[in-house]
Amino acid sequence: MSIPMLELKQVSRQFGPLLALNQISLRVQPGERVALVGPSGAGKTTLLSLIGGALRPSSGEVWVLGENLSRLNARRQRRVQRQIGMVYQQHHLIGNLAAIHNVNAGHLGRWPLWKAVGSLVWPQEVETARQALAQVGLAEKLYARTERLSGGQQQRLALARVLVQNPALILADEPVASVDPARSHNLMQHLQRLTQQGKTLIVSLHDVDLALRYCDRVVGLRQGEIYFDQPSTEVSPGQLATLYALDRAA
Hints:
Layout: E1 6-15, E2 18-28, E3 33-37, H1 44-52, E4 59-64, E5 67-68, H2 74-81, E6 84-87, H3 99-104, H4 113-121, H5 126-135, H6 151-165, E7 169-173, H7 181-196, E8 200-204, H8 208-214, E9 217-222, E10 225-231, H9 237-249
Parallel strand pairs: 3-8, 3-9, 6-7, 7-8
Antiparallel strand pairs: 1-2, 1-4, 4-5, 9-10
Helix pairs in contact: 5-6
């Protein structure tokens, strides 16, 4: 059996008195597409932050690419994190820079400092950036100022940055929150194709229909715990209704 891309072992995370995640155990194999669904406050974003190394667990272990993130020194952790691509709900783009510079941020884990700084004056790897933007329908925006792009265009720009990074594991936190329904399907299709190229996807979604259509496994979270974890073809409307109804009744 192959080494899991990701394994959480009895992971909990507290913020003061608030228990955001409670005893989460989860294993994801390379190439899987896993959707995290559940009501707001269920712990989806916290879970993604733990996997990406932005947070450390209060207890338990987070393993990524066969490494226990809590036991890595800074250098080894950076090496693992270079293999993790993040698509954020808030994009994390620099608005006063041209699109090409934000796309090229996907190279920063590999570029030496002199090349990263020099690229702000004389953009490097222009054709690579152009191809990434073309894949998300923004080829003509290569030198457009990022803050002048619409919310949906900025979300696609953030995806192009991940394409350039070429990570093994992609974490996406509500990647379709700022786009219309047609673009939502388009973005999910891009993410789906990446897993067909051998990458692994973990994506949090409010739109359950997208989760069922584009992911092969769905994890339902509520109140910081896993409510169900099963293939998307086996998730029933009743399970989903109960998942969200329980939160409303709490």
